[in-house]
Design goal:
By secondary structure, the chain is an alpha/beta fold. The chain contains 9 helices and 8 strands. An 8-stranded parallel sheet has the order 7-6-5-4-3-2-1-8. Strand 3, helix 4 and strand 4 form a beta-alpha-beta unit. Helix 1 runs parallel beside helix 3 and helix 6 packs parallel to helix 7. Involved in the third step of the chorismate pathway, which leads to the biosynthesis of aromatic amino acids. Catalyzes the cis-dehydration of 3-dehydroquinate (DHQ) and introduces the first double bond of the aromatic ring to yield 3-dehydroshikimate.
Length: 248
């Protein structure tokens, strides 16, 4: 059974520290850097485990890892990012959701991709609700900037599908595109759901700090190495929030 993350809502806007390697060590380093939530990128660490153990042992290792990371006292997001959306493991949809369903009861948040079959999303949301695990439904555009209409459709559609947090990451060409992202986020917010808005790319690193001004509840930062274009380190994001009086 996951810890109930509702008690951590006062943390928003929250800094998410992304774990991409050496999971337990990175978790404690992330806490030292100021992370409020830890994201385990299983697509980045599962391959190493699979090269050493059979599936039964990999599952035991995953649960053991979570227990050790729990000692940080921070909520945990589980992410199995598909290769088409920036992940590094070429898992089939079936295998991706097999692992998602296995890990969901052990974590506080699970990340589902909006591009996944809607039947898979529905089943995963139902499982998450049973285990009191919150759902992040995400969409990533690494090579294009979607229209504002398309962004609103994705955000509102994922909310209707059961997302507690609707996350969209885009690749702007200019500041006008960043503004379109923020406007889409504002147009998609209601009292029942939250949004996470990310403008990827080095020139738009500042957006990861100011996005909460437009209602974004999460900002992802790296712990040991960036896993997305323009990502800042956890402490840089946290200090940016403090400079804008967004967090104490």
């Amino acid at each position: 059974m996951s810890q109930n993350p509702n008690q951590d809502l006062q943390l928003y806007p929250a800094v998410v520290g992304t774990i991409s390697e050496d999971a337990v060590h990175s978790a404690f380093l992330g806490r030292e850097l100021g992370a409020d939530i830890l994201e385990i990128r299983y697509d980045l660490i599962l391959g190493d485990l699979m090269s050493k153990f059979d599936e039964k042992m990999v599952k035991k290792e995953c649960v053991s890892m979570i227990r050790k990371i729990r000692e940080t006292g921070l909520p945990i997001i589980a992410t199995f990012r598909s290769k088409s959306e920036g992940g590094q493991m070429d898992l089939s949809v079936r295998d991706q959701f097999k692992w998602i369903h296995f890990i969901t009861p052990h974590v506080d948040f699970v990340d589902l991709e909006w591009s996944s079959p809607k039947s898979k999303i529905k089943k995963s949301v139902e499982l998450a609700q049973k285990s009191q695990t919150q759902v992040i439904i995400s969409s990533h555009y690494f090579d294009k900037m979607p229209s504002q209409k398309a962004m609103v459709k994705m955000l509102t559609g994922s909310q209707k599908a059961g997302a507690d947090i609707s996350k969209i990451a885009v690749s702007p060409k200019n500041e006008a595109d960043v503004l379109k992202l923020f406007e889409a986020g504002l147009a998609s917010q209601d009292a029942e759901a939250n949004v996470c808005l990310i403008a990827m790319g080095g020139p738009f690193r500042y957006s990861r700090i100011i996005a909460p001004v437009f209602g974004s509840v999460l900002s992802y930062g790296y712990i040991t190495a960036p896993v997305a274009p323009g990502q800042l380190r956890v402490d840089e994001v946290k200090n940016g929030f403090r400079s804008l009086n967004l967090r104490s």
